[in-house]
Design brief:
Length: about 60
Amino acid sequence: MPADTASNAPSPAAQESNLAETGASSRTGLIAGVAAVLVLVGGVAVFLGMRRKGTGNR
């Protein structure tokens, strides 16, 4: 007997799915912006710390 081909067809995806979201979310820009600000603040802190340390060695 031949197999029923209709039963082998994939079912359409439901409107609400439990799959994980992939790609960029709406918070990606916010997280990247906060990270950039933190890197900038750290760079300024290192620059000012080295500058103050350098003036005391004269």
